[in-house]
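Researcher: Go.
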Amino acid sequence: MTSASERRLGDRIAREIYRDPDYIDDPVLAEYVQGIWQPLLAAARARGDLTGELDERFAWQVMLGRDRTVNAFALPGGYLGLHLGLIAVVGSRDELASVMGHELSHVTQRHISRLMSKQGQQTPWMIGAMILGILAASKSPDAGSALIVGGQAVAAQNQLNFSRDMEREADRVGFGVMTQAGFDGHGFVGMFDKLQQASRLNDNGAYPYLRSHPLTTERIADMQSRQPLGVAAAGGAALTAEHAMISARARVLSNPGVDALRAIGAEAQGVQLAGLPAARQAGILYGAALAASRLRDFETARDCLRRLTQQVGADGPGLRLLRLLTLEVALASGDRAGAVALLQASVAGPGADGAAGAAQRRPELFLSAQLAMQVGQAAQISDVAQRLQVWVLAHPHDAQAWQLLSSACAAQGQTLRAIRADAEAHMAVLDYAAALERFKAAQELSRQVRSGAAAADHIDASIIDTRRRQVELLAKEQALER
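Model: Structure:
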């Protein structure tokens, strides 16, 4: 199976995941994951595991799913999926890096392609349909059975599960990648313990995602033997306040139910909270504040944030996450004046990377855009639109950034640019048919106003014409795949 074919198959599956209601693009969680993912990619390149061809052809994107199960999965074409349930239980960046390094190695070692190559009597698109059925069955066995039935489903599952040899290879290569990237190899052992426990809790008889995680004592022992001599097997680095807060955020966002949110909030009121380690306390207070905010109980949310401020301190490692959450709560409660002051402090106060650098980081940028839309001042909207334009030039596959840019342009009366940005947002999630419709609408609008348009509008019209032709070809290919 060629790398180009594998990428097309991965795109098809990823397109369905983007449409799934459980898909989530949370800027805070995504930034934290990218802080692990990018060093792993760099280490794989340096080791020669990631070849130039795969580096160029594959997507190398991480998708987050609002799923409480402890799982991760690799897809064809360089896509990696992480359940929020996994992020919620890992005890350190090292443990999360071990999972991501393992899944990355499945892709760089072409395990998916090698398995699919055995499907000699089935087309890649039929295999893709089976994978989508397995994805659906992980949530609803009945839905999955409607897509992949009888013995065909069993055969697909047996062939899509990685062999033990491939699992061992992914362990070995993944361990080398994560340690070269600067992570503690003990994270592998600690993560194996958690996955082994989770496999007992999550085994409901439904089909798993594209791969399962069969853990054997042999694999665990192999990872333990790879640790440096004389270093205690601590199971990864100690829990930090920053990671505890990230885990708490993942837990809240994966439990949208009212009862679950109330239970998370109640943890901050327990009398035993004071006896817990400081990092653990920070995570509980962060989760309680976020849960209260989602329940619209802003008084409780602010009380938890005040307690969290005392816990983190003026220059603690979780200070930036605290500021971002405080800003989120202010925006959700309609406290615009407070949100403006908080945003200024988040990009200029202690722990910031300098006003320009911090303001251009994804969470701050997106919150700035949301605040500008709420305030409605032309100068603020214009400023954030320019910053979003710079961002999408460097990150053209960021659908959420394109959507925010579309809203900012529409607020300024720049209808043509707003429609074009909306089309690019559809492109980013591989929905070429919808993108084509938006580009056609933009093209029609540009014809209507072209006679009196400014030079900038002529440039926009030229870009739209070019993009429409490109999308037409992609949309035709996408239609043929069906």
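Model: Residues 455-481 form the longest helix (27 residues).
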